[in-house]
Amino acid sequence: MMAGSALRRLMAEYKQLTVNPPEGILAGPVNEENFFEWEALITGPEGTCFEGGVFPAKLVFPPDYPLSPPKMQFTCEIFHPNIYSDGRVCISILHAPGDDPMGYESSAERWSPVQSVEKILLSVVSMLAEPNDESGANVDAAKMWRENRTEFEKIAQRLVRKTLDLPV
Amino acid sequence: MRAVGIVLISVALTCAVIGNAYYQKKQFYPSVVYITKSNPSMAVIYVQGLILVLMANTFLRKIFFGNLRAAEFEHLMEKLWYAVTEACLAFTVFRDDFSPKFIALFTLLLFLKSFHWLAEDRIDYMERSPVITWLFHVRVGTLLGILFSINLAMFNYAYTSTIAKGASVQLVFGFEYALLLTVVLNINVKYILHTIDLQRDNPWDNKPVFLLYTELIIGLVKVTLYIAFVAIMVKIYTLPLFTFRPMYYTMRNFKKAFHDIVMSRRAIRNMNTLYPNATPEELAAADNVCIICREEMVAASKKLPCNHIFHTACLRSWFQRQQTCPTCRLNILRPTIMQTRQQNQAQPPAAPAPQPIPAQGPNPQPGPAPFQLPAFWANFPPPPPPTPTPGTPGASQQPGPSSTSSTSQTPSFQSLGPGSIPIFAPSFHPIIPLPPVPIPPTNLTALSEEELRMMEGNLRQAVEARIETLKRVQLLLDAGIAMMSQYQTVTTIANIPLSMSTTSLKNENSSSKMSNPMTKIGENSQTSTSQNHKSNYSNKMKASTSKTVAEASTESIAESSITSTNEAVATTSRATSEILSEQELLRRRRLEKCAQGDPSID
């Protein structure tokens, strides 16, 4: 029973995340009625220009999870080479093998049922720390990251303050 | 609020139009004639009609679906947009039939379609929603029944009118309703499968299989319908452009469903027949948790060739997507292919296999070689018996490295050691089984985007070919070192004066030191071989490097000084850096292209 197994697995993952939460990450279903839509809070990795920020994102799981990957989208404004301007995250762990939007990923780093919400969020944290400027989901950000790092960091810092509701 | 405002305005306008007409004509019939003759009045009436239809749609939607989820609404709008644009394209073909009746029929079609889309989404959502109420079943049941009968009636109407009056726009409607019938059938089957699944207490393993087959059959029916429709349209009217987008997607889905079924069947058959059930000990050793569903493995579980263990049911559903191990991505359809390929790879080197063993000639021990061969030696054929040719050790050794490291070296063989040629009777180069290495031109900046991309696609093959050759060079070097140590033992056994054995010792050192630079030389010469043979530059390069390889090997074994080797390394490393800078240039260009690339690619 696909539905049941997806639901059970999501419940198991939620339990695991609440019992043993990884550092800097908070995730759970938006409401207990629907386990297929989650909210996550990611803190910007230390030592990077995203440090101190708390970035909200939403995760939408397909009915055949974990056979297909969930979709992840930041719900705050974020400026990063691998995040589309509407917040969708472009990271290889979220792509099923076979579809390759940027045409560069090896299947070894793609989605497989072995992955989990925790691994996705950890990958996103490390993606925040080390953008992959070879696949530009946000071309402006990728260009700025490569050519004008200080300006990039300034924008990132401004958005960090924005997520914290601090005056910019 | 805005919607209410629009409705109110529209109603007010309609009232005004009707009131105006009645005020002017005083009687029912003349007023109607007046309204239909006046374009502004008709526009108002049309808008009012559209709003009424939308209201009816919303009302029925509330009855059958309750509140829509955000995703469902989004899908609805997206599909509506496509349907409207495609209908506009269809109008161009049938502009002669353009009439209020046509508009009405078209609106009805869209109206019905919207319910099909919503029903599809709702049924898919069944899998995800934890609670399914009886209300859901009643709603879906009635809706599917109503949609099915309307579709059938409309199809029948279109069919009879086409038969009676000949081809008209009814052809398109008939075709659309036939398609909608398949959609209703598909939804129905899914609904029944999901319902059965929900009634069961334990997981129903076969449901995905049924779903896949349903998709395949429905896909086949749809593809046939599309092809028939296009054929008829081309014959009677013109190419129906408006069907191409849905037709393309249908065909793609059908192909994917077909491919999925074939591959998953093969993978599942492999799983059932080739892979063993996991034993309790193995389960205990492997955490006892299936990493796909994160549940304990008490039920049947299978062990893949890579020793990863999963539930049989979980594996089966995964294999319907991908035929790889979820953990290590071992392709479970490929092991047999890989084995044969390994055999193929092991075979070809046999013919030109360089023979370092003949150097045993002066060795008094006729038995097998006393040294341990490196592990990868196993890929090569067993060492042939010592040849009687007692050529000088140096001469018999030479062609080994040079024959592997460069592609066409026959002239240099002859110039280097004519005595050795009989041993290497097949003097063709040993790179036959490898894919051809692409030959990049000297000026990379002059290439177009496509050409660069093409080279990129071949790059991997080229690298593989190089690595393969390097491995062989390394192998030969190892053999050389082993042989030198053998010489040493021979000299100690034969009690040759000390001075001699020290030279050989020194030589051994030099040759082992050589092994690293030698590998570099091999790589370099291989890279240069991959360069354009026609270009003078690389031709010279090749000549020089292959000569250095040959020289280096000759000299090292002919107990020469290390300085010449250093020289060789120096020249070759300079050449390497040149090639590297060219590659760097290419890479940078690619990156730039990437940065300028279309941001809309998703």
Automatic annotation (TrEMBL), chain A:
Protein name (record): Ubiquitin-conjugating enzyme E2 G2
Annotated GO MF terms: ATP binding; ubiquitin conjugating enzyme activity
Family, per entry: Belongs to the ubiquitin-conjugating enzyme family.
Listed InterPro entries: Ub_conjugating_enzyme, UBC, UBQ-conjugating_AS, UBQ-conjugating_enzyme/RWD
Domain (UBC core) ranges: 5-165
Active-site residues (renumbered): 90
Organism: Ceratosolen solmsi marchali
Recorded catalytic activity of this chain's protein: S-ubiquitinyl-[E1 ubiquitin-activating enzyme]-L-cysteine + [E2 ubiquitin-conjugating enzyme]-L-cysteine = [E1 ubiquitin-activating enzyme]-L-cysteine + S-ubiquitinyl-[E2 ubiquitin-conjugating enzyme]-L-cysteine
A GO BP annotation: ERAD pathway
Top EC class, one word: transferase
EC number, as in UniProt: 2.3.2.23
UniProt keyword annotations, A-Z: ATP-binding, Nucleotide-binding, Transferase, Ubl conjugation pathway
Job description of the protein: Accepts ubiquitin from the E1 complex and catalyzes its covalent attachment to other proteins. In vitro catalyzes 'Lys-48'-linked polyubiquitination. Involved in endoplasmic reticulum-associated degradation (ERAD). Required for sterol-induced ubiquitination of 3-hydroxy-3-methylglutaryl coenzyme A reductase and its subsequent proteasomal degradation.
Encoding gene (name): LOC105362190
Subunit structure: Interacts with AUP1 (via C-terminus); the interaction recruits UBE2G2 to lipid droplets. Interacts with ubiquitin ligases AMFR/gp78 and RNF139/TRC8; recruitment to lipid droplets by AUP1 facilitates interaction of UBE2G2 with AMFR and RNF139, leading to sterol-induced ubiquitination of 3-hydroxy-3-methylglutaryl coenzyme A reductase and its subsequent proteasomal degradation.
UniProtKB/TrEMBL annotation, chain B:
One GO location term (cellular component): endoplasmic reticulum membrane
Highest rank taxon of the organism: Eukaryota
Molecular function per GO: ubiquitin protein ligase activity; zinc ion binding
Keyword Repeat: no
Ranges of residues in domain RING-type: 290-329
Biased composition (Polar residues): 504-548, 566-575
Catalytic activity: S-ubiquitinyl-[E2 ubiquitin-conjugating enzyme]-L-cysteine + [acceptor protein]-L-lysine = [E2 ubiquitin-conjugating enzyme]-L-cysteine + N(6)-ubiquitinyl-[acceptor protein]-L-lysine
Entry's family note: Belongs to the HRD1 family.
Membrane topology: Multi-pass membrane protein
PROSITE patterns registered for this protein in UniProt: ZF_RING_2
Gene3D superfamilies: Zinc/RING finger domain, C3HC4 (zinc finger)
Annotated compartments: Endoplasmic reticulum membrane
Residue ranges, compositional bias (Low complexity): 392-412, 550-565
Any one GO BP annotation for this protein: proteasome-mediated ubiquitin-dependent protein catabolic process
Keywords: Endoplasmic reticulum, Membrane, Metal-binding, Transferase, Transmembrane, Transmembrane helix, Ubl conjugation pathway, Zinc, Zinc-finger
Database matches in Pfam families: TPR_SYVN1_N (PF25563), zf-RING_2 (PF13639)
Pathway it works in: Protein modification; protein ubiquitination
Protein name per Swiss-Prot or TrEMBL: RING-type E3 ubiquitin transferase
Main localization, broad class: endoplasmic reticulum
CDD domains per the UniProt record, alphabetical: RING-H2_synoviolin
Biased composition, class Pro residues, residue ranges: 349-371, 380-391
Transmembrane residue ranges: 43-60, 102-119, 131-155, 167-189, 210-237
E.C. code: 2.3.2.27
InterPro entries named among the record's database cross-references: HRD1_E3_ubiq-ligases, TPR_SYVN1_N, Znf_RING, Znf_RING/FYVE/PHD, Znf_RING_synoviolin
